[in-house]
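Project outcomes to date are best conveyed with an example. Our students and postdoctoral researchers have been running inverse folding experiments weekly, and each run begins with a structure described purely in tokens. The record below, which covers 197 residues, was selected by the lab manager from last quarter's runs and is presented without edits.
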């Protein structure tokens, strides 16, 4: 484990508390919600995928625009023809989370803001370990982890969803039908949409 992850405590800090979030979240997914698989990956693929591989998580953002920026960050904001069928899903309800955007949470964990946005390997290893620790510390009382968006850190937030999170999913349709979102992303965020007119 890298140096950054060595800061994490093995036991839950007494001052670490869950907070309740009530707001819509948005996700782009190849499958509609009723076909989502929660089968764990053999090894972690993304920021807060559990290091143990024991469970699977999903990610959502606090706005469709932030979901777009997160989804297509590694693709240099180029939406390929095959991406046009991605489903935009809205998730609503109330969730109890460890909120890494709060100073007192970072202090309790002995971390700094790197846990939210840094891309260094040792930080990702710490994120993945933290996902397991949160599940161990809180069990089903915790529905996920909130953190600052790496692509929209000034105003964007992301949510790591555990399988049991009590959110209602509503399929808003394929990405290609989200004209207002696409225009906004092209004009404001420099997206390139292949095959879109």
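After processing, the design step wrote out the following sequence:
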């Amino acid at each position: 484990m890298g140096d950054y992850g060595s800061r994490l405590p093995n036991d839950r800090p007494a001052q670490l508390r869950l907070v309740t979030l009530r707001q819509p979240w948005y996700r782009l997914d190849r499958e509609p919600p009723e076909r989502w698989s929660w089968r764990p990956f053999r090894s972690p693929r993304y920021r807060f995928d559990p290091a143990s591989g024991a469970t699977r998580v999903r990610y959502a953002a606090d706005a469709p625009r932030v979901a777009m920026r997160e989804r297509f960050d590694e693709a240099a904001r180029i939406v390929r023809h095959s991406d046009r069928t991605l489903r935009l899903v809205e998730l609503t309800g109330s969730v109890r989370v460890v909120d890494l955007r709060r100073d007192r949470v970072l202090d309790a964990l002995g971390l700094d803001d790197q846990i939210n946005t840094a891309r260094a390997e040792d930080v990702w290893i710490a994120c993945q370990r933290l996902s397991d620790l949160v599940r161990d510390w809180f069990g089903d009382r915790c529905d996920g982890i909130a953190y600052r968006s790496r692509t929209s850190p000034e105003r964007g937030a992301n949510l790591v969803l555990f399988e049991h999170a009590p959110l209602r999913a509503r399929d808003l349709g394929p990405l290609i039908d989200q004209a207002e979102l696409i225009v906004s992303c092209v004009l404001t965020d420099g997206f390139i949409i292949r095959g879109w007119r």
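The radius of gyration is 17 Å. Residues 4-193 form a domain with the Diphtheria Toxin; domain 1 fold (CATH 3.90.175). The training component of this project remains on track.
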